[in-house]
Structure prediction request, 240 residues.
Amino acid sequence: QVEASPKPHRGPSARSALSVHSLARVERHTAMLRCSLFRQLPQRALAQTKKKAKKGLQKKTAQAAEIRLAPHIPLELVKETRQFFNNTPRFRALLELVFSPREPQDTEEDRAEYEVARAEFETLAEKARQAYSAHEQRAETRMWRAIRQLPEDLHDEAVASKPESVPEPLLFHARHRTEIFNNLSPDEQRKLQVFQNLMYVRYPHSEEKQRNPDRFWIPENQVVSRQKEAALQKRRIKGR
Prediction:
């Protein structure tokens, strides 16, 4: 038989030593908690909830930055203009038509006759402009008079309504085009045709701009300056 080892006997002195040691540990911990260093430790921030994150995203999307627009003409709409000015014979003929000839063949009598005809034209043109201005003024006066005589319920509607464009058959150039063109001489008809061709070359996109005006505006940050465009074109030529 194996004898069991006797259990150690703790007397009153051992118990008092343990109690003193435990009390010392408790006082040490309480002192550490009372210290200002442990009281000033930073606390972790609470995790942001999904709802708050969604609200922040909604506010950012609602406050979108204002984009400034700049006028722009698409390149595909000025193709004929670029082809015309890149054609040397056509460009030279345009310069001869617009500017005075290098070797004029008219005489002093021709110049005097031209000045007399120009003075007569300016006089008739001024009379026509005055008559047209008076006609427009009378039409505007009659229009506002008719609006003022409308009933109260129709007055606000008439003022707030947008003006409608005049039908194409009622325009002056549409009604009297054939009559005016037939009364011109062959030389005058040729000059008129040349003028119309030049206007089309200069503004081939006028009808498209009336149909779709938003197409002629782009953000300012997408505008390419002429210097940058010329530099890009030189790079393309060198690459070839």
